[in-house]
Amino acid sequence: MNKLISGLIGLMMYGGFSLAESVHLPQAIEHTKSAITHGDASHHGGIEHVPLLVSNINTALEHAKASEKTEANPHTAEGIIHLEAAIDAVKKDDAKGGTQHAREALKHFEMAQQPKTK
What is the domain range of residue 41? Predict the structure, then answer.
């Protein structure tokens, strides 16, 4: 059984990602996409979407930080910067700016998820 577990861990490491990253980065992407959806809806008069925008940004940020802690990646780090800027923008009643930062974060998270080349 230990050989099976060691083999699976080795396979995952060879594939360029760790178990924690494989869980957290996709979650950061999913919540960032949800934040963008709610941000877009808030631009069209759906003020009730702003709390959902903020909630999804915060959840995405938690997952991104957990992924970055497990395995540092410059794209994940840049995505985190954009999510933090998104929170600041929304705090200043700029949901549109927050949504734009979330879009930038998403681009970086998707780049971070690409397999590493050796």
Answer: 19-112
